[in-house]
Amino acid sequence: MKFDSLEKLYVHELKDLFSAEHQFLAALPELKARATDEDLSKVLMGQMQETRVRIGRIESVFSSLDFEPGGHRCTAMEGLIEEGGQLLSSDIEPRVMDAALVASLQRIEHYGMAGYGTARSFAEKLGRKKDADVLQVALNELGESNRHLTTLAERKLNFLALNLTH
Questions:
Q1: The model's pTM
Q2: In this model, does residue 165 exceed pLDDT 90?
Q3: How far apart are CA 18 and CA 102, in angstroms?
Q4: Can you list the alpha helix ranges (DSSP code H) found in 66-128?
Q5: Of 96, 99, 97, 109, which is closest to residue 142 (Cα–Cα)?
Q6: Which of 2, 36, 46, 153 places its Cα 20 to 30 Å from the Cα of 163?
Q7: With 90 as the cut, is the pLDDT of residue 163 above it?
Q8: Contact status, residue 35 vs residue 98, Cβ threshold 8 Å
Q9: DSSP state, 37?
């Protein structure tokens, strides 16, 4: 695709988000299986549902644009998932595993927040207020999820990982 307009760049950003969300959704069951902490496991279950909802939101935006969401592979998400997978497949203590899972999840969420923020900004500039509102909801959800993960890590998981070595 030739990027000769903000609208085409916007569509590309949406395709990137769509691919990233699908890749994340596919990786979540394995991430959940590696979690040893019950609270983290519950967070991962919730993320599966939230990701499905975000995919539906992106599909609704594509429908309003009269574009198809597929046909693109988000290589950044692929790299984030691969990097996390390499760490998680190494020889790692279960309690350290949970801290590593949160670190990996937060990298993924920050990538998503950057993408949704960019897409929302493009939608606003293109006068697509409804799209911008939908994308803002997704951005808010990712921010809330990230805050939840930070709290879980700082109040529990990082402490448990630290106590293995001290």
A1: 0.91
A2: no
A3: 22
A4: 75-88, 94-125
A5: 109
A6: 46
A7: no
A8: yes
A9: S
